[in-house]
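Bug #2210: token dump truncated for PTS transporter subunit EIIC?
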Amino acid sequence: MAPENKNRATAAAILPLVGGARNVDSIAHCMTRLRLVLKDRALVQDEALKALPAVLGVVEDDTYQIVLGPGTVARVAPEFEALVTEETSQLPLTADEWADRGAELKAARKQRNATPFKLFLRRIANIFVPLIPALIGCGIIAGLNGLLVNLGWLTGVTPALAAIASGFMALIAVFVGFNTAKEFGGTPILGGAVASIIVFAGVAKITVFGQTLAPGQGGVLGALGAALLAVYVERWCRNGVSPGRAKSRAWGRVPEALDVLVTPTLTVLISGLVTLYGLMFLAGEVSTGIGHGANWLLDNTGAFAGLVLGGLFLPLVMLGLHQALIPIHTTLIEQQGYTVLLPILAMAGAGQVGCAVAVYLRAKKNESLRTTIKSALPAGFLGVGEPLIYGVSLPLGRPFVTACVGGAAGGAFVGLFSMLGDKVGSTAIGPSGWALFPLLQGNHGLGTTAAIYAGGLLTGYVVGFLATYYFGFTRQSLTDLNAAPAPTEPATPKAMEPARS
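Reproduced locally. Full output below:
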């Protein structure tokens, strides 16, 4: 019997003995066991399962575990998952399953409407977004530590705070590698293992293209590339089978009995060598280019760059393209300790706040809209602009444009000072508005940095307000807005991430 037929036959023999497809809630596997979450344990035929030739035993824990052995389980699990899917599709649906099907159809429609480029950006964002809480926590501690050092306070504690703040950033490449492999269907720990090569101190003994490597060279971009390569090497070893995925092909490159030993070894070895002798150098050049490019942009075209970035950030968020900026921010934080782009982009939220205040004053008779603004403004001041975007400015049309004008003015203000030599940066990504103050860092002290950022916010508020108040409405639209209750329930979407890149 062909290997794939044998594995499918094993899966087909197991399925009815665990109560059939409808009794299976979820499927996973470890190195040796098929792990099932079952709806009704009483439907399982333990003795019949143990009698199957491929089954080495069963274990009851929080999941029902069928021991198949190393190598075998990685091949049987995808076949078992495919059988469950096939059998479930042929059964009549219950009421709950009809509801689930509706949700799936909605998700499928959304998937069809998504472009490949946006989907790729979303996957890149999925790698970095889980890191944001650690970036924020460590960034705030770094800011506190810098303040204590400048004041000369608690000199016995500041070295400990520096270690706490810097530990995560020193190993961020490992976490990026782990998340990359997880997102693209590989074994996460192998992605982390390959990415850890980048931060290993011993790489300083290796010379590539006439240059000695430095620990951390290539940073998060190198880690992302290394983990992606590890995913494809792992798939190559398994001939197209991703861990935990249903699709499979014939296994031929690595013998089944040796898979647990050979596949991880080849994955780490091949990916590691390519990382050392290619990716670290290339990613290092790209990372350096990003740092120099951002600095050059703000040093030479600060006001104009700030105007463009602050003005266009809200449309980028609307299109989902802002996610492309996340790796750039992370690279700048890793290189320089802060990203100079985020405070400029945060001005987009300031323009939105000024716009909302103007709409509130102009819509004097529209209590529904005014109530929405009153409830959304506090979040807007803290950098969460989506309730104002979707509930106020975007439905009204022209105010969305005038809000962008306010963001452009605030961005130009911060960019101008950057061109004059006063850089304003953030030690983490995620927060915006007033919530960004604890994360601010620049090249001329916290007081100067905070004052410039506050000036940018004030500029965004004022220009966004004035542009909306005087140019945000036509005479007819203003009459219509106050003549009858505006949208009875302005669309308030579920919370998205704060205005960030």
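Output looks complete on our side. The radius of gyration is 28 Å. Marking as cannot-reproduce; reopen if the truncation happens again.
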